[in-house]
TrEMBL record:
Residues 25-186 form the NHR domain. Pfam families: Neuralized (PF07177). It comes from Musca domestica. This is Neuralized. It comes from the Eukaryota.
């Protein structure tokens, strides 16, 4: 099996993801609950990293406004990047209770510190909470402007992660109800 980016023009330097948004055809998916140096614009459909000297050194986390639902993939698109920022993105789901005001006031700056279950991909690592489950042949460190990442929940409660509509062979089984999409810009 050949990975979509087995050899990449960008593999010598990671492009930093500084602006992400749900794809333009899907207007019902919006971001909410942010932490760190990020702003939400365009009716909360675009998450952008703040600029400035201190912003480059910090992480930021955004969550989907509504829980992920079966048959309604949540897709984001990288619309720009800033080469001054340090890293890539991590994307996944969490069962963190975002309806709780206390939880919303104490959102951590990293996916790894979310005080709930988290299923996510970061670089080429696939993790459940902080436990490494596998390494993927594709890497989120090689993203380019225009790339799309989708999270799809199947009726069998399996989460699939797609990169540019191609299955990344990353699946999480037995996903509970009421999980939110979470993205960390590093």
């Amino acid at each position: 099996m050949r990975a979509p980016y087995a050899t990449s023009e960008n593999s010598q330097s990671c492009q930093a993801t500084s602006v992400i948004q749900p794809t333009t055809l899907e207007t019902k998916h919006r971001w909410t609950c942010i932490s760190g140096n990020v702003t939400l614009t365009q009716n909360w459909t675009v998450a952008s990293r703040l600029t400035g000297a201190s912003a480059a050194l910090s992480r930021c986390v955004v969550f989907s406004e509504h829980p992920l639902s079966v048959g309604s993939p949540f897709e984001i698109k990288l619309v720009s990047h800033n080469p001054l920022f340090a890293g890539c993105l991590s994307i996944g789901i969490t069962d963190l209770n975002l309806a709780d005001d206390n939880v919303r006031k104490n959102i951590p700056l990293s996916i790894k510190r979310i005080p709930a279950n988290v299923w996510y991909a970061s670089g080429n690592e696939v993790r459940y909470n902080s436990t490494l489950l596998q390494r993927s042949m594709t890497s989120l460190e090689w993203l380019r402007v225009g790339d799309r990442i989708a999270l799809e929940l199947t009726p069998a409660r399996t989460l699939k992660i797609l990169l540019n509509s191609e299955d990344m062979n990353i699946q999480f089984q037995n996903v509970p109800n009421d999980v939110y999409v979470v993205v960390e810009l590093q």
